[in-house]
Design brief:
9 strands; alpha+beta; 20% helix; 162 residues; 3-stranded antiparallel beta sheet; 4-stranded antiparallel beta sheet
């Protein structure tokens, strides 16, 4: 019984002596890394530094979802200028608005097919290389639904700024 206890203590104490020898081995070796414990952990995510953006937008509540991104939904169709078209698998159009004084806004909005724009909720049906095709539903004088198709062409920004 005493022999088994001595053997068990010897077996469990072996890893302690082995680790000490390994640590001594690394202490005597030289490396280019001066202090390895101050290195960044490769499995941790880098800290994100946020930019200080001088523009601040209020929040918008639409379709029971809150967003702080500016929207183009309540803008008149006459004041929307398409400045670029992105063709590909998902077609996109970039648009800016014109203020009442005729100045182009700083905000650029991304338009997708199926979005609704303007006061009459015109739907973007197609984005083609020449512009954006909108379809809006109105009620005529006979109380019948009527669909009006509008095309907003790609505009030259330099001529709009003058």
């Amino acid at each position: 019984m005493k022999n088994t206890i001595v053997i068990m203590l010897f077996i469990f104490s072996m890893p302690l002596y082995a680790n000490k020898n390994i640590v001594d081995l690394f202490k005597n070796s030289s490396s280019r890394i001066k202090d390895p414990f101050k290195l960044r952990d490769p499995f941790k995510r880098k800290d994100l530094k946020l930019k200080n953006d001088k523009r601040s937008y209020g929040g918008y509540l639409q379709n029971n979802s809150y967003s702080n991104l500016p929207t183009i939904n309540r803008v008149k169709l006459e004041s929307i200028r398409v400045i670029g078209i992105l063709l590909g698998k998902d077609r996109r159009a970039m648009a800016k608005t014109i203020s009442a004084m005729g100045k182009l806004s700083d905000d650029t909005f991304i338009l997708k097919e199926g979005m609704r724009l303007g006061e009459n909720n015109a739907e973007i049906r197609a984005i083609v290389p020449g512009g954006v095709v909108l379809v809006e539903k109105i009620t005529n004088v006979y109380d019948q639904d009527e669909y009006i198709e509008t095309v907003i062409p790609v505009s030259n920004i330099s001529s709009d700024e003058n």
